[in-house]
Specification:
Elements (H helix, E strand, L loop, with lengths): L2 H7 L4 E5 L6 H13 L7 H11 L3 E8 L4 E8 L2 E7 L6 E5 L4 E3 L5 H6 L2 E4 L4 H4 L3 H9 L2 H6 E7 L2 E6 L4 E5 L7 H13 L7 E4 L7 E4 L6
Parallel strand pairs: 1-3, 4-7, 7-8, 10-11
Antiparallel strand pairs: 2-3, 4-5, 5-6, 8-9, 9-10, 11-12
Amino acid sequence: MGILGIQYALSPDSVLVQSDIRWSPEIHQSLKKKFESLSLRTYGIKNLKRDIATEYPCLKDITIRYSSSLKSTVHLLGWRPIVRIRSSVPTTKEYVVCESNMILSKDSFNNETLHALPVITIVGGDFEEKRVESEFINMALNLHPSMFENYTISWHSKTQICFEDLKNPITIIADSLSVHDRERFDYVQRIYRSEEKYKNGMKADIRLKDSLVCTPGAKQSL
């Protein structure tokens, strides 16, 4: 008898719910109560996934295993979080970009998970529109981890992305294409170290295809 047949045939005496450790306690407890109250044998796994995922978009997959003692273990897998995004106004407005282009409320995750994620700030009043732009999502999912280690990142638009160096007085302006060109970022760093005129700060525009535009001056957010 296949797994679907077992799910229909058995009515477990007890249900053990094992959920994604990255979820918030509220999500975990809510899903635990949900599954403990369900009559699992009346559900096909396909319908179960569809119905639960509609209510809990943080849920990626469900696996149910039965033991001979009529006990069931429900494994709940969530979407993997990649980066936390927040609005510059107000700063309390936050989401999490997850794998497969999923954007979830920060309330889906526990504090430990949130604090471990890199952050991108979206600048401007049209935060809700910018956070779903395809260029923004692509950058959030594909930006090299070292960029978050070395810069504070703010998204103004797909043609203006600001990188503030965490160690040196350097501001780098990129667009949605040049943002992935790590060689250009490295070249800016070499220029800063080799040119005395930039010792008090430098702004570098790397958006032009064939050249860099570097100007001296104190680092400042745009």
